[in-house]
Amino acid sequence: MTSSIASLRQPIERGPRRSRPVMLAKGLAVYGETPANTREIHGQALDDYFRPGFQFRPGMTVLDGGANIGTFSLEVLQRCGGDERVLAVEPAPEPFATWSATSASSSRHPT
C-alpha cells in the first residue's frame, strides 16, 4: 500500500494568539502567545544580537533567518531609523502567522 504526501499531511494545530499586541520597550508592538513569552523572546534577541561591539547601521541589509515572531526584525528596523532592508524568513506556520500579524501592525515592515 502506498500513500501520497498529500494524504499524510495532518492539519496544523495553531496555538492561541493574542488579539492585541504586547507592548515592548521603545513602543514596539508584537503579537505572541502570552506577554511573558513575547517578552522572553524579545529579551533573547536583545541579549544575543545587540551586545556591545556589534552594530546594525543604516544602509545595511539584514537577513533574519528563523524570524520566529518578528522581534529581532522590528528591533533592527527601529534602531536603523528607516535606512535599511530587513529580509525575514520563518518557515514554521504558527510563528509565521504571529510574525505576519506583528508585521502588519507595525509602521515599518520587514520584507
Protein described:
The protein is built from 4 helices and 4 strands. It is of the alpha+beta class. A two-stranded antiparallel sheet has the order 1-2. A two-stranded parallel ribbon has the order 3-4. The longest helix is centred in the middle third of the chain and has 15 residues, at 35-49.
What are the salient characteristics of this protein?
globular, two-stranded antiparallel sheet, alpha+beta, single chain, disordered N terminus, 111 residues, 4 helices
Summary of the model, kept short:
The chain is of the alpha+beta class and 111 residues long.
List the helices and strands and how they pair.
Elements: H1 5-8, E1 22-23, E2 29-30, H2 35-49, E3 61-65, H3 71-80, E4 85-89, H4 93-105
Parallel strand pairs: 3-4
Antiparallel strand pairs: 1-2
Give the count of helical stretches: 4
Reading the helices and strands in chain order gives HEEHEHEH
Strand content: 5-15%
Q: Calculate Rg over CA atoms.
A: 16 Å
Mean pLDDT: 76
Q: What does the overall shape look like?
A: globular
End-to-end separation in angstroms reads 44 Å
- How many distinct folded domains? 1
Which stretches of 5+ consecutive residues score pLDDT under 50?
1-15
Helix fraction, binned, reads 25-40%
Largest sheet: 2 strands, antiparallel
**Which strand order spans the largest sheet, edge to edge or round the barrel?**
1-2
Structural class: alpha+beta
Tally of DSSP β-strands: 4
